[in-house]
Design goal:
Elements (H helix, E strand, L loop, with lengths): L28 H10 L9 H9 L1 H13 L3 H21 L1 H17 L3 H31 L3 H24 L3 H19 L4 H12 L5 H20 L4 H13 L6 H24 L2 H20 L12
Helix pairs in contact: 1-3, 1-6, 3-4, 4-6, 5-6, 5-13, 6-11, 6-12, 7-10, 8-9, 9-12
Amino acid sequence: MSVGVRDIRGVFPRQAGSKPRQDNQPMPGLVWRLLILLLPSLLGLGGCSAISVAYNQADFLLRVYADDYVELEPDQAARWEPLVAAELARHRAEELPYLAGFIEAMIQANHQGFTASDSRCLLDQLDEVYRRQARYAVKLATPFLASLTPDQIQALDRRFQEDRAEDMAEAVKETTPAGRRERVARYLETLEDWTGPLNASQEALVSAIVDRMPQSRPAFLAYREQKRAELIALLREQPGEERLQAFLADWLVELRDLPAPLTRARGEMRPLVMELFGRLHERLDTVQRQHLERRLQELRDDLLQLQRQPRLAPLSC
């Protein structure tokens, strides 16, 4: 969907042994991990237990991630953890109703067959979902990054350099037949989580549309390397939280300096995603439609149960 949240990669390299992410989203890894915990509705997690564990343990998991990547000093953790607790509480109160409302809009679109107008509105709302959650993530990441010592910044820069070669190898692979098959397989895996198994005709449809989607990985990697270098340079200046937050917000929330190739790729993706939604939904059988309806209802209900005072925020669709 538009700017993908599910497969974000960015500043902090992944942990050893974790599955490579492929979408072209300019998101620092810490912020990506924050979004993973703040966006259960977009992750394809199955069942209340998986979502609840991820969300209710978010403060602990964030500390583990941060400590693993940068080896937080005790005083850094002591300053950061109260902000994490406060922002997660605010997110529960302010954003979970919006996320539940987004899933409710998907349920209604499913009833209507994912028409072009429904799909267009959902994509508009997904962009807004991303921006709203990214603001939270940037606010949480800012004091963490601002507290890094020169040694920690240097270590972070080394980590950036270490994973660059692997990332470039992945980008080259995506242009090969094997890379193309893996790309199609990822889409099929995600879709089948929502619909149940797809038949051969449905798989062929998905494959044909995915093949037409832009492959902008090299452009993304070049942009990410540029922004990583800018971030390291900024951190070395000890800019203060206000300036650092403005940099991250321009980069990650507003996408202000997104290069022309990536802007074009986003524009090209939108009609293809709409086509995929509409044409695939037309071909779903009764069992698949029921599976999709059940998954959406379960996810909406999970997001309601996570709220202190459950409600659905209205969307403008």
